[in-house]
Amino acid sequence: MASHHALTEEIHEEPHNVNKAAPGLSPLCQYSAEDGHHTAWHFTHLGGIIQRGPGLTCVEATAVQAEGRITPEDCGLWKDSQMEPLKKIVEFAHSQGQKIMIQLAHAGRKASTVAPWLSAGEVAGPELNGWPDNCYAPSAIAYNEQHATPKAMTKSDIEEFKKAYIASVNRALACGFDAIEIHNAHGYLLHEFLSPAVNQRTDEYGGSFENRTRLTLEVTDPVRQTIPQSMPLFLRISATDWLEEAGIDGWTVKDTVKLASLLADKGVDVLDVSSGGNHPAQHIIER
């Protein structure tokens, strides 16, 4: 594992070297799964990219719980049967001399929406295999009027989520992936806990910076302990909520810098930095 202060350094662990001259492929949701299972579409989509030789291919956001999917057509790894198609994708990547990573995720309050190629931002009801009455978030605040109002997670819900996350990590390891990425960005569950704009809890998971970052660290630590020490651990993060101009107290770049040090201590090797996606009032400022 890379030294814990070196999040910005190249990864050199054998046998996980990647072609640093080639770009890596970010996760690209296809909204084409069947009950969370990757399909022939995914194999064809990823296979064509893998053949072109990116430095590292990342499989799209893959839900650790059924209710953690963005849409009913999202991929998952919450049950064993979902491993088989992923194994085939990993085997093909390795046959081409390529490294492959999976991003594990939970959509939080942005779950149970209609696939974007059907309709943008609408709730997927039971008639569309959705679960609008079973969405979870740190607080019972909907993303907007088009999204379901989530249930505020209980302590039991949080514990179940953490257990499900590690179970999905173990399945990913059994599939043969070369790296794991924790999805902590774009307004999905872990990002929601970070931001005071979304997290209005009054227990140990809300309020202070320490409390709001607690769940991210409680997920990161056991993931690092579960995967091989030589395996790179990535974490996708939105560096800011872009809420300064809206006058809303949100997650900021300063918060990200502060959290980065804690993540390094927990064994995160790479911060995959993005921004926004957590609040409809965001305003992206040109720098």
TrEMBL record:
Its cofactor is FMN. Keywords: Flavoprotein, FMN, NADP, Oxidoreductase. GO terms for molecular function: FMN binding; NADP binding; NADPH dehydrogenase activity. Residues 26-275 form the NADH:flavin oxidoreductase/NADH oxidase N-terminal domain. The keyword Magnesium does not apply. InterPro entries: Aldolase_TIM, OxRdtase_FMN_N, YqjM-like. This is NADH:flavin oxidoreductase/NADH oxidase N-terminal domain-containing protein. It comes from Cryomyces minteri.
